[in-house]
Design brief:
Layout lengths: L9 E4 L9 H10 L10 E5 L5 E7 L4 E7 L14 E4 L1 H9 L16
Parallel strand pairs: 1-2
Antiparallel strand pairs: 1-5, 2-3, 3-4
């Protein structure tokens, strides 16, 4: 089961990805295009060109887990960046999955234990 823990790091691939890619294809994109280790325990997020499909790839210690969702209506809100990879916070990923735009929201200052 995939749990979205605060202790995980979340990386969004900023270029569109062919959703026909499976475990090995997405792991290859992580390794060759994003220059990250796919078995690091980080969660990698991929969107298709029209932003109607999303895949999350995660190494859970003994194999890859893949979450795949297709929207019936609407698009995932995401603004492209110049870099190939953007690190997201857990809350930003949850907002992305729920259809909220985290680029237009402002975070209030709160105490954060480091």
């Amino acid at each position: 089961m995939l749990g979205l823990s605060v202790n995980l790091r979340y990386f969004l691939c900023c270029s569109s990805v062919d959703m026909r890619n499976g475990f090995d294809g997405l792991a290859g994109i992580v390794r060759n295009h994003l220059k990250k280790n796919p078995i690091s325990g980080d969660l990698f997020i991929f969107l298709n060109k029209t932003r109607t499909h999303i895949k999350l790839l995660y190494w859970d210690g003994d194999g890859f887990a893949l979450f795949y969702k297709r929207l019936e209506r609407g698009r995932y809100s995401f603004t492209a960046h110049n870099e190939p990879l953007k690190q997201l916070k857990r809350e930003e990923l949850l907002m992305l999955l729920e259809g909220l735009s985290f680029t237009q929201m402002k975070r209030k200052s709160r105490f954060k234990f480091e």
